[in-house]
């Protein structure tokens, strides 16, 4: 077992950077909720017209070996695992749910006229017996832009909240990806442990979690060790003072340095999100202009045909 320091930690969530088969702290949790490599060798080409960038693929996605190894390590405990129609199902599947994506999802790459806008969710292992009060079709409010994070396979926190809320205990996500499982668990007041192989996505997760612990309604911040900016720290250091872009104490202690870095990551994320929103709006504006011009051209063509 490899013992590593958390990449990120707060009162509810602990995130590790590394291989989840080597960093095994997640095995101490009670329920597994994860979005593993599907085993479909996914890649994406460049699509300038749709504003879609190329992506070389996901690590360990050539087959289901990584997913199956994690489930074997997890053992006979409840697991919720996202997956694909195009890959072998996990062993010990109790039921299969379907996540229906938003209306603007699954357009790119579809050739039959039907959008590729569904994914599977496997309930694996023992799950409590319950009356059938929920649909096995999970839905998403809003469009794809609502849950874009920089990871190509982000999941909406609302869908994760539905799944997590149905099972008690500490949540494990050994394929943390964009961090939606961890964010959803914390929003429900649950503890969670995540592991992510790629550091760039650890950074995405840390930014998302850091964003959630800030309260911009007033001059205060909330995190595990400062309950109010006017309170003294537990170890009697000088008072913390809020600044828009940096938080420091006079001693520049490790905790304050970590919070400063987290706030700076948050500022970078906000800048990235604003740039992305501008790109999306510009793309939609171009599409509307193209459609308007095409409609006008069609109208002119019809008028010429109908002219005496």
What features would you describe in this structure?
With 308 residues, the protein is of the alpha/beta class. The chain has 2 domains: 190 residues, Vaccinia Virus protein VP39 (Rossmann fold, 3-Layer(aba) Sandwich); 87 residues. Helix content is 31%, strand content 15%. The strands form 2 sheets. Strands 1-2-9-8-3-4-6-5-7 form a 9-stranded mixed beta sheet, with helices on one face. A two-stranded antiparallel sheet has the order 10-11. Helix 2 crosses helix 3. The longest helix has 53 residues. The protein is globular and about 80 Å long.
- Name the helicity range: 25-40%
User: What's the helix-strand series?
Assistant: EEEHEEEEHEHEHEEH
Strand proportion: 5-15%
The coarse silhouette is globular
Tally of separate domains: 2
Q: Give the strand order of the largest sheet, numbering strands 1, 2, ... along the chain.
A: 1-2-9-8-3-4-6-5-7
Pick out the low-confidence regions. 214-255
Briefly note the structural class of the backbone: alpha/beta
